[in-house]
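Quick one, tokens below:
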């Protein structure tokens, strides 16, 4: 896989990988390895093709939810882009439906190793509180 070799994926490659993940064809370990490799490749940023390919595959697997009498949008917006503090998460919560903080959690794993769990729990709690209070 290109991403393991720190190369960008094309739209089609990203779609194919996420489609396999969403179809249940991959193990949790493979899923974690893909996400870790994607977030740590040399460019340090997921490309538009990678984000679009993965997002399209996820949308293709989404289950429609009926919402009689409610006006809602079809597309959920989520943003990441290095969000790592409660203040950043709160700011994004005001303009988006979610904030992705996966790379910040991976950095905590890298920093604390096997002792990372309490640090991750505190991080997630602080981030969730910031988003809920926004």
């Amino acid at each position: 896989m290109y991403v393991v070799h720190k190369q960008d994926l094309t739209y089609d490659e990203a779609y194919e990988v996420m489609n396999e993940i969403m179809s249940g064809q991959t193990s949790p370990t493979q899923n974690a390895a893909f996400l870790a490799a994607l977030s740590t490749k040399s460019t340090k940023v997921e490309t538009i093709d990678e984000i679009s390919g993965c997002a399209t595959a996820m949308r293709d697997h989404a289950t429609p939810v009926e919402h009689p009498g409610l006006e809602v949008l079809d597309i959920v917006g989520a943003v990441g882009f290095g969000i790592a503090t409660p203040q950043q998460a709160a700011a994004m919560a005001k303009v988006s439906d979610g904030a992705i903080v996966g790379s910040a959690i991976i950095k905590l794993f890298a920093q604390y190793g096997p002792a990372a769990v309490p640090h991750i729990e505190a991080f997630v709690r602080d981030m969730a509180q910031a988003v809920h209070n926004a």
